[in-house]
Specification:
This protein has 68 residues and is of the alpha+beta class.
Length: 68
């Protein structure tokens, strides 16, 4: 799997646009957003890999009381 990048356009503390793509497309998008919104902060970060799948829950009953 190729590296994915997340480009975000920030208005103060708020992300007003988010785009995830391959590095080349992400860079092009970041450049376009910088031209469109010259006063706003644009970030281009690596998307962390997805965590490994969680193990299944045990099949036996773990408690005797039903939830209310």
């Amino acid at each position: 799997m190729t590296e994915q990048r997340r480009v975000q356009v920030w208005f103060g503390r708020h992300a007003i646009a988010t785009y995830v793509a391959d590095p080349e497309l992400a860079q092009r998008y970041a450049a376009a957003m910088d031209r469109r919104f010259p006063g706003l902060r644009i970030t281009n970060d690596v998307v962390p890999p997805a965590p490994a799948a969680l193990s299944p829950l045990p099949s036996e009953r773990l408690w005797d009381l039903a939830p209310h």
